[in-house]
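Quick start: read one record
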Amino acid sequence: MGLGTDHHLAGSQPSGSASVQTAIQFAQQAEKLSLQTTHDNENTESVAVEAKFVTPQDPVIVTADGNRLPTVPLEQAYKLNILKEELDGDVPKEEIGQTDDNAQASPSAVAGFGPSSHAHTKAKQKSSEGSLRRSMPPTNTHPLFPPLPLYGPPSLLRDIQCWTFRISSFFLSAAFLGVIVLGALFTNIPTVCMRTWKRITLQNPDAKRPFYEEEIRRQNTRKEQERSWKRRKSQGEKTPDQERAQGNDEYVPTEGGPDPVICDVGYYARRVGLDIEEFQVQTEDGFVIDLWHVYDPREYTRLNDEERSYRGPELFTGDNRKRLRDPSQKRKFPVLLMHGLLQSSGAYCVNDDDSLAFYLCKSGYDVWLGNNRCGFKPKHVLLDYSDPRMWCWNIRQMGVFDLSALVSRVLFETGFEKIGLICHSQGTTETFVALAKEQRPELGEKLTVFCALAPAAYAGPLIGKMYFKFMRIISPGLFRVMFGIHAFIPLMMTMHGILPPGLYGWLGYTVFSFLFDWTDTRWDRGLRDRMFQFAPVYVSAESMRWWLGRECFAKHKCILSTKEEWRSEEREDGTDGPLAETASQRAIQTRDHHRKPKGATAWYNEKVCPFALWVAGNDDLVDGRKLLHRFERGREPHVRVVHSKVLPEYEHLDVIWAMDAVDQIFREIREVLWKTCNVRDQCRVPKGCEDVVAWIPEATRADDEDAEQSSSDSA
């Protein structure tokens, strides 16, 4: 027995030669994951020292100086950590043999989700168990989120590879964009001809627009305000709007005159008497993203530049710094807004007082506008634009890292325990993904409600269009040759800076209308050029490959279920078109068969926050009705839908830009935010919400009823 113990102890202590070999392996692995290669002890501060698992599937690299590098493949992160622990004497040598590219341990153990005695327990495992683990295949990732490629530090070979992709993608993606633009212009010819003919025949081509009279009224009002502002400004006097505002305790505009149509949310906020301050937020994988705070300058003191800078990668730490001019005044409840694909959160600020951001701010909410990574100005604490690691991310990283970092910063700045979240299109997708039980479910405990506008969980029929099919049939390698491994068609952003705003706005609308099959029927056409100043933004080619490539969303037509899974669910529910006709027959046939309970394929667990959904009924880009059916059929037992509405005539962007969106959606959002607020007694009551009753979860209501019943029985 003693000999056996001595042998075990000897086996657990690495010999001198083994330590040297392990040190060499660790140095090689660390260099593969570092910011730069090290020569003659140079750049030692950028050397990778460990992999930090943010979630069991999301390891980020921590460098010697404490900075972060983006996600790397699981087996590479695990190998680095095991080698490090072996050098520290915490892991038996036999573990090293299990860390090749074809085998790895449970990510939950690496992430620290297992017991603290994990290494000690592994040391006691039998050799047969070690052999079994060495024969195991790599840990399976979700089929909708395949592993991202690994790009090492700069080298001659990598630089050649990058420049090859950049050159090929520049010409091929420009050609692709040219085909799309020509297609959009060609299909627009009939519309132009029809409008021209009506004008020649003295007809008004816009007379049949649903809000034509209101458009004319708003246009005349804007012109009168511009003339008044210009006249009074030249005379050094207050405009009538400013005089009325001060007399009625309303908001005082500090910008005015003709709209120059610029990409500046602060300018449009000042036109309606508000203002915006920009915060820098660091994600846990090192990206620096923009967070815009909409505020009333009459009651809030703007923070200085240092206070608005990024604070580091850690989440949910620190106290609030909110500065009210009147400390005795109750605080406003904070709300975070997230934008859609190829957009920024400036999309919420383009309709003057009818913009969702400004409407909520003036209603009495503390409004924050979040932007995803890269956006207008790609930034990272270590990487630069030319590094392919800067662009190695997709929708998972946007949800797991970006959304979490933005929520954390708003919590820090406001001092609240929870906030409300409003998302549109892709913003809903990253939230649906982040809240999933396999991703970052604890985020749901920081939200009072998730308001989803045009929720993008299931694909609409538009995914079958020819140009989308083309992107789906090409291989991942050919996709990278055509669109690169950096930003997706960066020529679009170049043209944004070159073209005049009017031409860019018209061209942007024409192209996006052609691609996504929407119209401006319900928008204020006089503001359309302004709407497209905040799109497109920089996104990664990998992100677009997730949306449109052959492996992920375009293939499965769902964000969290494979095509086989959700079709099987629809067959069981009898909701998949022609198969629904035989639903009763199928129910009889399968009644006695072994079937999974409906909650067995749920995406969310008990940590998920309440949902509220507004579905555009005439939206071909995504299918919001399928998501509603999923909730109605009990597929998500933990999801509590506090509000849902289908707007039959609405298209994808109408939920934020329609002229009647205030009446149809924004007022309901205002009420939903307030009825789900968890600190109503500590916050100002928003305008129009004085009679809104607090929402009580069904479980809480049932417990209260049981308590009342038991007390009455005892009496």
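The radius of gyration is 28 Å.
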